[in-house]
Amino acid sequence: MTAATAWLAPRSLLPAAGNAGDSGGNSDRGIVDAIRHSAGTEPINIQQLRAGISVISGSGGNIAVFTGPDGKLLVDAGIPASKGKITAALATLGSGAIRYLINTHWHFDHTDGNDWLHAEGATIIAHENTRARLSKPTRVAGWRFTFPARPASALPAIEFKSQMAMHFNGSPVRMEYYAPAHTDTDVSVYFPDADVLHVGDTWWNGYYPFIDYSTGGTIDGTIEAAEINLTKVSDKTLVIPGHGPVGSKSGLVEFRDLLVEIRARVSSIKKQGKSLAEAIAQKPTASFDARWGGFAIDGPAFTELVYAGV
Is residue 44 a contact partner of residue 27, using CB atoms and an 8 Å limit? Predict the structure, then answer.
C-alpha cells in the first residue's frame, strides 16, 4: 500500500495542476520504479472462485487464472519482481502450461509481466490500442513518466477491435472493449460458465480510481464503463476488479453511485467559476473519503481528477 500510495499520490496528478515545468523526461522515475520494486516483497495471495477460476493478488493488478485440461489462461500479467512467487502460486493451481494471457489494458502494473509470460509459452491477447500503446513510448503526465516501447515479445500477438470470443478448457471466454474509460485500452473478460467477470481498472473496489487522461481516460467514460458493467452482471456474478477484493453487483452499484455523485458536486463547483484549489478546499468528496480514500487516491487527488474532466 505504501508503494502504491507513492505511485499515485497527488504530486500533482494532472499536467494542468503541476506538471507544466516537466521537461518530458522521467523526473519522478522513482514513483513507477517503487511500485515495481515493492512487488518483489509483497505477499502473493490466491483466492479460488469457481469452475476453474482463481485470482492472484499482490503483484500490480488482480490476475485471474483459468485452469483446466487445456492449461492455464491468465488475465493480466502483474510485475516481474513477483515472478518467482507468481510461478509458485500458479503451480498450486495445477500443472498445466500457461497458454494465453489477456491484458485488460496497457498500464505497467497489468502488462509488465508480458515478456516473461510470453517466454513461458503464453500467447498475448489485447485490444488493438493496448498493442499501439505498448509499441511506442507512452507518456503518463500524472506519473511524470514516459514508458519506453516494449520489446516485440511483450506485445499482444492477437488483437481485437470491439469483441473477441474463444474456447478454452471446454468453455467460452468473451472479451469486450469499453469506450475510453480508465484509459482508451480497457476491456472486460467474461467466463460465462463460471459467471465470473474481470473488469480491469474500470472498477477499483473500495478505492477512488485513477483516471489516465494522458491515454484517453475520462471521468464520464469511467461512469459509462460502470454503467456497462452493471448490464453485464446478475446478483450471482463474481466480479474481479483491477484493484481491491473480488466483489459483486452491489459493489458495482456503490462505485457507480460514488462516481456520479462526486462528478455532480465537482461540476457544480467548477460551473461557479471556482479554481481547482477552491474546488479542493470545498471538500466535495468529504462524505466518501473514509470509505474510499484509504489507498492510492485520496479525496483531494480524486477531486483533481474529476475537475479535469468536467
Answer: no
Question: Which grid coordinates belong to 154?
Answer: 511483450
pLDDT for residue 4: 46
**Which of 154, 241, 206, 189 has its CA nearest to residue 66?**
189
Compute CA distances 130 → 79, 282, 302, whole Å: 17, 37, 25
Return the C-alpha cell found at 91.
503451480
Give residue 136's pLDDT.
97
Cα 39 to Cα 20: distance, rounded to the nearest angstrom: 31
- For the entire predicted model, the pTM comes to 0.92
> How far lies 29's CA from each of 40, 67, 116, 143, 162, in Å?
18, 37, 23, 8, 34
* pLDDT attached to residue 233: 98
Mean pLDDT by 10 residues, the chain (310 residues): 41 37 48 82 94 96 97 97 96 96 97 97 98 96 91 98 98 98 98 98 97 97 98 98 98 98 98 98 97 91 97
89 vs 112: CA distance, rounded Å: 18
pLDDT of residue 21: 34
Asked whether the beta carbons of 302 and 276 are under 8 A apart, the reply is no
pLDDT at 26: 54
Within 8 A by CB and 6+ apart from 207, the residues are 243, 244, 292, 294, 295, 296, 297
Separation CA 276–CA 278 (nearest Å): 5
